[in-house]
Design a protein that fits this description.
homodimer, 10 helices, 6 strands, 52% helix, DNA-binding
DNA sequence: TCTAAAGTAGGTAGTTATACCTATTTACAG
DNA sequence: CTGTAAATAGGTATAACTACCTACTTTAGA
């Protein structure tokens, strides 16, 4: 019986293209498609699916949050993340959620096919560029290096603040929105910047977009 | 003989997916692919191509600039723009370049097939959402409305400045980069913001990203 | 239960951005 | 040839951001 996959991507053309590529394989079948995070979570609740292929950047509920909920529904659910970017922080988050597949959009289409087959067997598949630095981090953490690996993890509140900033709110508005003082909003902002090694608003916004914390 | 098309998109998976969709049609053939604007311009210089399908958001040379150069090489070249956003300003620019096809990525895959066939016959194909407001604008411009239609068109220099801002340069650096005074850089920035009705850096950056003026 | 992390909030300085002005030179279209 | 748009550049004032401080309270984990 074929491996039954669900595709989630907000762009219909991308989704159908991917579907066309996958359909060329006899052992894989696209049984459902979703155009946002909420839809794919609903599918996870109501259908039996072998593998979820989820794009990071989606409206309403981004790919990461959707994956998180899907893993909560059943930790044995298998998810492959499709992403435009090879950002360390995001990969860590995905892996810590128990996601086993992470494929970059700029890799060849047959990588996604490979990923489906590998993840189906409950093994990891990461695009080469990703696995390279996951392995590198592993090596570094084993070694005697005391060097401060800037492994970034924002707190929940920090992510909330960052999202508002990236959506165009100024600090004053962030504070109002979260019902905290301006000084607190600034403190969060400064902590975020320090953690990320970012010094400019522009980079902050781009980071948030890259991470799928917010969408354009 | 089949319609020979070239695909330009920086994401290989998207490109191959699209290629798979197109390949299902007997009368259309993907003869070449490009992963950035420069590559597709090079193809335009050296090969005979019926239709160029170009994604807006691409590194090195964005889809719009690439299209502009392709139209300069031969004004009879046929280009279809693939875009994530239905932004008025960008569509105007595309149309004024002589581009006859504009397809949104969130539309169905067969729209691109339709677009190829229609544009091949030297007619216009715009995704419905696009054509709606192109027509609306036409109607408005015919009517007696004196209302200030905020039809936005940035000048070349303004686009340069905006790109640098969106890439994370502060005004001082923009000035250095373009070898102009800080005051001039500021003047351009203010003009851009006024034209776009934007008052915050965050929105400026998001605008640039949306328009494909720069990439994340 | 104790402690570390997270969340809260304030102070102070210096830098950068925003929003108005005005004005000159260059290039191009009517 | 002549006006208009574009590109250049300066002035001034206010708002927002960045980068340091310190310090208290709450929360969750060892």
């Amino acid at each position: 019986m074929a491996i039954e996959v669900v595709l989630a991507d907000d762009h219909a053309i991308v989704r159908q293209g991917l579907s066309a590529v996958i359909s060329q394989e006899q052992d894989i079948k696209v049984i459902k498609e979703a155009s946002n995070g909420k839809e794919v979570v609903d599918i996870a609740k109501n259908a039996s699916v072998d593998i979820f292929i989820i794009d990071i950047t989606m409206p309403i509920l981004n790919g990461l949050e959707a994956s998180s909920q899907i893993m909560q529904i059943n930790p044995r659910n298998k998810v492959i993340i499709l992403s435009m970017h090879d950002n360390r922080a995001f990969i860590e988050r995905a892996l810590s959620l128990g996601i086993k597949g992470y494929v970059l959009k700029d890799s060849a289409a047959d990588e996604i096919i490979q990923a489906i087959r590998v993840v189906y067997k409950n093994e990891y598949f990461l695009s080469p560029r990703i696995s390279t630095f996951v392995i590198q981090d592993y090596i570094d953490s084993r070694g005697q290096k005391i060097g401060e690996k800037k492994i970034v993890s924002l707190t929940g509140r920090e992510r909330e603040v960052l999202q508002l900033i990236a959506e165009g709110y100024i600090n004053k508005e962030v504070a109002t929105h979260l019902k905290i003082s301006l000084k607190t909003a600034l403190a969060h902002r400064n902590n975020i910047m320090q953690k990320l090694g970012i010094h400019r608003q522009a980079d902050l916004i781009k980071y948030a977009l890259k991470e799928g914390i917010t969408t354009i």
